[in-house]
Amino acid sequence: MRVTGVLVKSLIEGKPALISEIKLEARKNEVIKKTELSVCFNGLEPGRTCCSGAMEEMYMKLSEGMFTDHLEKANYQLTQLIKNGIENFENDVLALIKNSEKNTMGHLSEIYRIPWSEHHKPVNKLFASLFDYVKQGQVEIPIIVNEFFDQLLPLVFRYAVNDPTVTNYKESLNDCLIKLRRHLHPQPFGTFSRKMAHELSTVLWAARSYLHALSVVSDTINATNHLDTEETCKKGITQMLFCSQCKGHVGVKPCKDFCQDVMHSCFSKQMEVSYEWDEIVRLLRQLTRYMVGPSGLESVLKNIDRVISDGIMNAMDKAPEFTPTILVTCKETGSAPENQKVSVQSPLVPNNKMLISDQEPVSSISLKDQATQLLLSLLNIHGVYRNITSSICVDFNVSQSPTHCWNGSHVAQYQQITSKYHSPNIRVSFVNDRNIMSLKDKLLHIQQNLISRTAEDDQMQNDAYVYQGSGASMNTYRDDEDFFAGSGSGSGYTPKNVHPDSSASDGFTIDSTPSTNQFAPKPNGNSSARKSEKSSVMVK
């Protein structure tokens, strides 16, 4: 028999005319047989019933279907919220990356006279890799940034530094410059390459983790749709909604607290992951601090072209110092005789109006607003499987009277017990469910990764580099530019303990508390090993 929504609603409201629609034999005021009814009769007291065993069985099936429908409806709303949030966030990040790529190409062509055909490939590879990383691709940000500046040096040297009237540049010089870039001193691009890698690594990791965490949460929600409804849940709903009719109390509404207890028992499995769920939401809130403000995702992505431009200007300024090394080291390529006079063209004077190009609007809503809206929605579903019980009880049209309501056995006050998960007539199974344990493990894993990485990032911020120096003796951090990837050997320079922009506000009023107040950095067993494996190659 197919049970319609109208029939279910009518049964909840206790309309006796619809009992016949179930096409089951209803009896009037017959003595209850202990063996026939298992839910609407406790067997401890004599009584009469209007229901048969077949009707009670049908009520059980109705109860299971009603619970499943409510669960799937609630889960669908949550997954749609998260799905839309993921899509909007990805689109905003892609738009920012595309806009920055366009501006970077414009600067290289218009300001530094590098042909589009020469710089298009390395620039496109850089920005495509950035978005691929956000989309969970196997990309190492420091590596792709290093490779980009390696490819950029020959272009800058040829078109912005070298004087073609004095030094004959040959194509064979390209490979030499690419290999030599990280060994030059002073560094052609100064500390701007490291600054760019560090900032991108920080904010894009946050964006990547943000999307991954949302995906895991969405998967967790979908997985709860496939959990079996406990027998105790079906009996509890039947007792709450239908047993009153078996005793002739047509139209009486269930007690509100009784409904709460029944729903808590029904969601006992889902509530097993509630703590891990809430922790993920809290950590997502912490991740938003990387996405807004002067050092946030939107700002960093918009300023990539400016950082690259600053690096090129540094190369033009320092060219007289590193060009002799290039000519001597790469002499076998035929770029210039060993005793040739070194000459570089006068540095280009960029047009400020060109540098501050009119950027096309990325979207009508900024990334900050998108993050704020999604965060507020996530905060609203904090404790979702605890809060959902109240909304379901509203749908069940429970009684607002604490005394004149159906308490499961009589029309009287419901004696709510202390524990929110127990009722005298409702038993909750605490047997470990494999699916639930798997969901908990998945949530716990990503939770630990977020906490660990955030703590590491805070420590890295405390050991931050000095990005800019003055004069000939730039204050630099001599590493192999793996940016804490842990490779290399030998000993290196220990950076000064400087925290850049430590006083800057992120402009995000929902939660601007630094994560160091939220997370205690955990000892890293590899930290000492990493410190002892600094590369002897000087790269900046």
From TrEMBL:
Residues 500-529 have a biased composition (Polar residues). Keywords: Cell membrane, Glycoprotein, GPI-anchor, Heparan sulfate, Lipoprotein, Membrane, Proteoglycan, Signal. Belongs to the glypican family. It is found in: Cell membrane. GO terms for biological process: cell migration; positive regulation of canonical Wnt signaling pathway; regulation of protein localization to membrane. The keyword Protein biosynthesis does not apply. It is a lipid-anchor; GPI-anchor. The keyword Phosphoprotein does not apply. Its main location: membrane. This is Glypican-6-like isoform X2. Residues 486-540 are annotated as: Disordered. One of its GO terms (cellular component) is cell surface. Pfam families: Glypican (PF01153).
